[in-house]
Amino acid sequence: MIIKEILNRRSVREYKNKAVPEKYITEIIKAGQFAPTARHNQAVEFIVIRNQKTKDKIFEIVSQEFVKTAQVLIIPVTDTTKTNCPVQDLSVASENMFLQAIALGLGTVWKALKPEFNEEEKIKKLLGIPKRYKTINIVPVGYPKEKPAPHTDKDFVEEKIHQEKW
């Protein structure tokens, strides 16, 4: 039995022009903070962006329209002096945030910061993120323009399960 948030979690790249309540953003961030971290370091922090001019500047870096149209952008960051698994810590926090957003009727998408385009460094400079912090993605949040169809048992591929060895 899979929880409904996992079934309903789909990438959303088009958002309604409808404000997201502050209490929802807080709940999404709580879900991210409550995610497990390597050695329980709890070093993940969050930058919340609502300002349209800042979103436009982020769009100039990442070139994906949904960063401009999402009502809120959340950027998880972690202090690399406190964790030996920054990518894993940020990934688990982000997934928790995605599931909480779905539970609140909101949509999200993983916007990777691509190393080959130096996007992380550009975002860090734009937002004043200290050098010792790492970020790997942006989490746009908003009300979906259209509700994507949930996963079903038809999407499950049993052949991808390997017992004991490949």
Automatic annotation (TrEMBL):
Any GO molecular function: oxidoreductase activity
Keyword Oxidoreductase: yes
Nitroreductase domain residues: 6-66
Keywords, comma-separated and alphabetical: Oxidoreductase
UniProt record similarity statement: Belongs to the nitroreductase family.
UniProt name for this protein: Nitroreductase family protein
Native species: Candidatus Nealsonbacteria bacterium CG_4_8_14_3_um_filter_37_36
